[in-house]
Amino acid sequence: MKKLVGTLIIIAAIVGAVFTVKSCTLISTGKVGVQYSYKGGVKDEVLDPGLHFINPFLKVKEFTVGNEQLILTKDKRDGSKENESFKVATSDDASISVSFQMSYRYNQEKIVDTYRKFKGMDGEDIVEQRVKTVLKSKISEVTTNYSMMDIYSGNRSEINNKITEYLNGEFGEAYGIEVLDASIIDVHPDEKLKEAIDNRVTALQQKQQAEAEQEKIKVEAETKLIQAENEASIKVKEAQAEAEANKAISESITEELIKMTEAEARKKHGWVEVQGVDAVVKE
Questions:
Q1: Which of 125, 126, 168, 251 has the most C-beta neighbours closer than 10 Å?
Q2: Are residues 183 and 231 in the same domain?
């Protein structure tokens, strides 16, 4: 009898230990847990990082709420699997291969709804099986507003800002994902496309050089015109000043001045006839 009781105690202890172990769930830092059961469905309560004791019949799926990165590059770099670069469309009907990275996290307030929507998929499953399948086409919806040269050597920061804004709206609505940053980090044209790009770069440089020459000629012509206008203005002002001086002299010769000049001349030289500004002296 004692042996039976002892055996039952041992069995109970083992069952209790198993039950306790199954009831313990550790949620990793930067993640939260969604609780669900096949019978009761999904619970609204989300588990924060740390150790939790839960019903052993419940299962838990983890979702990242810390920042994660999705990296798709041409070479093996920062976790990218071999060549994961992809092609995007442009406004001039080109198709150019790019490397891409995206920083993201799941919106904690939407995680339960996201889990229900995707029927038991966890965060990594959603990114691998859903996000990646539409990512390339979503990015092309932005890059079709830019030319091949814009993407290859233009204002990449503007394009990346537009991609980030667009993906954040699209993925937030569809997957409960916040896109913190999305960037084309490299461009990989093939030989034919590289030749076309080089030709465009050369043509652009030639155009810029021609425009610079034209601007130089224009500035020189404008400078000469300004100089000529200044010289003409100086001559006009000199002529105006001379005319005004002559007018002042003419207006200063009055009848009284003429008589006075005549009288002075008679006194000094004898007889003088004064006519306007001319005087005839008679001895």
A1: 126
A2: no
CA distance 160 to 187: 13
Model's pTM, two decimal places?
Answer: 0.59
Task: Quick: pLDDT tens for 239-256.
Answer: 777 777 667 666 666 666
C-alpha to C-alpha distance for 34 and 104, rounded to whole angstroms: 19
pLDDT tens digit sequence for 165-187:
999 999 999 999 999 999 999 88
Q: Are residues 80 and 185 in the same domain?
A: yes
Q: Residues 137, 157: one domain?
A: yes
Instruction: Return the closest-CA partner of residue 65 out of 176, 183, 181, 168.
Output: 176
User: Can you tell me which residue has the tokens 């002529």?
Assistant: 239
Q: Contact 181/166 with Cβ under 8 angstroms?
A: no
Sheet holding 59-64: strands in order across? 41-47, 31-37, 59-64
Structural domain boundaries enclosing 216: 195-252
Rounded CA gap, 27 and 261, in Å? 122
In this predicted structure, what is the pLDDT of residue 168?
95
Distance CA 48, CA 32 (A): 5
Which class for 51: exposed (0-12), middle (13-18), buried (19 or more C-beta within 10 A)? exposed
Do 139 and 96 touch, CB atoms closer than 8 A?
no
